[in-house]
Amino acid sequence: MYLTIKKNKKKKKASILIIGNEILSGRTQDLNVSFLANWLNLKCGISVNEVRVIPDIEKIIIKNIRELSRTYKYVFTTGGIGPTHDDITAKSISKAFKVKYEYHKKAYSILLKYYGETKFNDGRKKMAMMPKGSSLIKNPSSAAPGFKIKNVLCLPGVPSILKSMIDNCLTYLTKGSKVLSYSINLMTVESNIAKQLGKIQKKYSKNVDIGSYPFFRLGAIGVSIVSRSTKKNKLKSCTDEIKKMVREKNIKAFKIK
């Protein structure tokens, strides 16, 4: 199904709240932040400006939801909306927004149809409980939907399921300007270009973000310079200055995009 979303030239900001003891304990590796950040930036023109990782503790979830929802245009949460005792995200968000925690009729109907009367046990029914007034984020993988309330979009923690659901968030988002990028890999060390790169960043600070990322591959030390902007002309001017700096310092460069 094709979905359209509103367009707004001003770039929007978002935060990601990872909820789960298993992430903090190191038992489970988070794979959702990089995926969500890339999807939001590249597909929606929405920048991610903060990521938090918190445990499955009600008062901590409530505190963070209130803070982030006041600060950002959108808050994406992952984890804690399953059938077990420690899945408390939906109930905690209900308390954060001071709304009733109840069965969502449509979610209940979807899950009942998916599992059937005999297999629709209390744990599975729990996945239909949400803050009152929530809108559903459909789940094509395992039926249990995510939900949106106010500016908070709640998704599961399992990466494959989250990925299958993510495009169903589009209807709730206002699209910002597309983020363009340019990257160049240099065979040098950061200290060799830090001063010049700092001057370029200062000059274009209002329109271009420049990142410097060291790497080590095939026995060689290098630096990847990535420039990002929503303004094509400013990005070109900035990258032209970076190229000029590279030529003047006689640095070997490769894989320029």
Succession of helices and strands? EHHEHEHEHHEEEEHEHEEHE
Strand order, biggest sheet?
A: 2-1-3-8-7-6
User: How much beta, percentage-wise?
Assistant: 25-35%
Name given to the CATH homologous superfamily of the largest domain = MoaB/Mog-like domain
> Regarding CATH, which class of the largest domain?
Alpha Beta
By DSSP (H or I, 4+ residues per run), the number of helices equals 9
What's the CATH architecture name of the largest domain? 3-Layer(aba) Sandwich
Taking all residues together, what is the mean pLDDT?
Answer: 92
The figure for the number of domains is 2
Helix content: 25-40%
Terminal residue distance: 33 Å
Structural class: alpha/beta
Overall radius of gyration? 22 Å
How many E-type strands? 12
Keywords:
257 residues, alpha/beta, Alpha-Beta Plaits, 36% helix, 26% strand, elongated, disordered N terminus
Describe the structure in your own words.
- The protein has 257 residues and is of the alpha/beta class.
- It has 2 domains: 12-172, Molybdenum Cofactor Biosythetic Enzyme, Chain A (3-Layer(aba) Sandwich), CATH 3.40.980.10; 180-254, Alpha-Beta Plaits (2-Layer Sandwich), CATH 3.30.70.
- The chain contains 9 helices and 12 strands.
- The protein has helices spanning 21-24, 32-44, 58-71, 89-96, 105-115, 122-126, 159-165, 190-203, 232-248; strands at residues 12-19, 46-54, 74-78, 101-103, 129-131, 135-137, 146-149, 152-155, 180-186, 209-217, 220-229, 253-254.
- The strands form 3 sheets. Strands 2-1-3-8-7-6 form a 6-stranded mixed β-sheet, sandwiched between helices. Strands 10-11-9-12 form a 4-stranded antiparallel β-sheet. Strands 4-5 form a two-stranded antiparallel sheet.
- Helix 8 runs antiparallel to helix 9 (232-248).
- The longest helix has 17 residues, at 232-248.
- The chain is elongated and about 70 Å long.
- The model is unreliable at 1-6 (pLDDT under 50).
